[in-house]
């Protein structure tokens, strides 16, 4: 599990740790890790040309001390002070003492730098880069140098992953003590490049529950249902899929395809596309009538491809089993009906659907994904899986459990019908007994991994191929 903590929590942990250490020790640890990472990226430190972009806070201090270490190993290190009278004094003295220098002409030194260290802002930065920093970071990005962000790429919001205005596009980010949410969530994540975590002894001072967590193979493997000798199809769970319409029959097939590979013992399809479903999947149970008459299920999926036939959503929400609502099912969703349910509900909107549910423009959701998913979960009293470049899953517990962020996304999933496969898969995991947050996050993970498997065979992939690759993705996480 990769975990991230908010700035407030990081600062509290740092304060606790700093109180036990000699003055400046923590910054020295950070600088040592940073310099070592830079040395690794440079290959040869002696003779390398290193430029430090130094802001007015401790982030600049880290850059200056790391620069001093590189200068002592023979690098030519030059600092660009964006706020000369507020630059970290100890760090500056260390750099000058080690033979480094300060320049007034950033563009000249950036033109032939081998490595640029971005120490403009870290966790103390707010509101995007200031105008005077913008031409400098553009010149850094435009050079041939490797650009390394100190703690965070300057200009991104550490707590939310928002980017207001311009931010630095780093090749790599060396972050201290713990991941910050912005390193795991788009759009900021896109700016971080490869992220390396440097330990500074903070771990013991951080609370046991992080703000954000990202599953890895072993975590997903632990969540996935495994049939035992006692299992039969009913004990493994039956998932009901209410999807498709005369206009969108394919959505039913794709949702069932996902559901059949999600670990439930059986899939019951309810709706007008039964012939198409059976033609593709003879193992599916089908029913043309209303969901309430279809027979017992342990979880429902409702919504993909329903078109105008969304009357059925209220009927499914009335049931006493977990319900996943996706796509058309999210239109006209009655918040009171969802909040009043006794069993868990999982909503799986993309940014446009989330925006409609929240009554805000789509761009607002895209730029503030974390706030949006939390707000939706609390407003609907439901677990919410917000799909997109970084899929987030939040439970309706007011922040007591960490928001899950999916590290397995891939742009290959931006293809018609992939959401239908995901909803069937997640519903199947719900029927198999996973709680809504686990079902949503494990499904997003497997879905992304399956898309990568399918794409590894070369060329664009279809949603049906993603569903087919779920088996190999499942095997991969369990290996
Ligand atoms: N607190 C600690 O013990 C440690 C802190 N460390 C470093 O210290 C950083 C935090 O330091 P600070 O709290 O001084 O904060 P930062 O250095 O991240 O930034 C704060 C400074 O930047 C200015 N600023 C804020 N927004 C800006 C913007 N958009 N454009 C330009 N300037 C802006 C502020 O006026 C302030 O002077 C961490 O990210 C990390 O790099 C590390 O050395 C590890 C130890
Ligand atoms: K930075």
From TrEMBL:
AMP binds at residues 387-391, 419. It catalyses: (6S)-NADHX + ADP = AMP + phosphate + NADH + H(+); (6S)-NADPHX + ADP = AMP + phosphate + NADPH + H(+); (6R)-NADPHX = (6S)-NADPHX; (6R)-NADHX = (6S)-NADHX. It comes from the Bacteria. Residues 216-477 form the YjeF C-terminal domain. Residues 10-208 form the YjeF N-terminal domain. K(+) binds at residues 59, 118, 154. The keyword NADP applies. Its cofactor is Mg(2+); K(+). GO terms for biological process: metabolite repair; nicotinamide nucleotide metabolic process. Keywords: ATP-binding, Isomerase, Lyase, Metal-binding, Multifunctional enzyme, NAD, NADP, Nucleotide-binding, Potassium. Transmembrane segments: none annotated. Its EC number is 4.2.1.136, 5.1.99.6. Homotetramer. Bifunctional enzyme that catalyzes the epimerization of the S- and R-forms of NAD(P)HX and the dehydration of the S-form of NAD(P)HX at the expense of ADP, which is converted to AMP. This allows the repair of both epimers of NAD(P)HX, a damaged form of NAD(P)H that is a result of enzymatic or heat-dependent hydration. Catalyzes the epimerization of the S- and R-forms of NAD(P)HX, a damaged form of NAD(P)H that is a result of enzymatic or heat-dependent hydration. This is a prerequisite for the S-specific NAD(P)H-hydrate dehydratase to allow the repair of both epimers of NAD(P)HX. In the N-terminal section; belongs to the NnrE/AIBP family. Belongs to the NnrE/AIBP family. This is Bifunctional NAD(P)H-hydrate repair enzyme.
